[in-house]
Amino acid sequence: MSKTKGEFVTLRELVEDIGKDTVRFMFLARSPSAPLKFDLEVARKKSLENPVYYIQYAYTRTRAIERKRVERNIPFPDIKNVNFNFSGIEREIMNKIVIFEETLSSSAKNYSPHLLPFFALELSKLFHSFYHDLPVLTEDEEIRDRRLVVVKSVEILLRLILRLMGVSTPERM
């Protein structure tokens, strides 16, 4: 696309090229006062370089853990009995989740929808680290229950944010 060369792409063509989810995300991820620019090559990729894919992949990982939990007949923990002594990345994730209400409020009050995609990216980054470093479905019930609460919290919040942005929540990728 080049304004000076007289080349342009319609929104319909853009959606056909890179998909509705990516277009919505890219438009929302920009501050209203910033020019709209994005890398079409990255937007076309079905890899972790693409921020939409990265967030959706975090969500699908939460769903995969849930499916495995159900397959193994592991009951979801009774919240009254969970040891909430979070540490490390678990604590970082839960602290991030706690500030979402403030982020959402700020986004609405200040007409700043770009805060939601950035929040989702940050939460996804934390979750991918958690997923990589800490096994969830361990034999240690106390650890497993605590981590299942973290996973379910991330799942619920990512689903909410993606739906607020009009982006799909795939079960598998």
How would you characterize this protein structure?
By secondary structure, this protein is an all-alpha fold. It has a single domain (11-164), classed as Isoleucyl-tRNA Synthetase, Domain 1 (Orthogonal Bundle), CATH 1.10.730.10. It is 62% helix and 0% strand. It is built from eight helices and no strands. It has helices at residues 11-18, 20-28, 40-44, 51-71, 88-98, 100-109, 115-133, 141-164. The longest helix is centred in the last third of the chain and has 24 residues, at 141-164. It is elongated and about 65 Å long.
- Helix and strand run: HHHHHHHH
Q: What is the annotated CATH architecture?
A: Orthogonal Bundle
At the first level of CATH, the class is Mainly Alpha
Query: Could you say how many structural domains there are in total?
Result: 1
- Figure out the total of helices: 8
Classified in CATH, the superfamily is Isoleucyl-tRNA Synthetase, Domain 1
Task: Could you tell me the CATH topology label.
Answer: Isoleucyl-tRNA Synthetase, Domain 1
Report the major sheet.
none
Number of strands: 0
What is the average per-residue confidence, as pLDDT, rounded to a whole number? 92
Helical coverage, percent range: 55-70%
Low-confidence regions: none
Distance between the termini: 30 Å
**C-alpha-based Rg, rounded:** 18 Å
Shape from CA axes? elongated
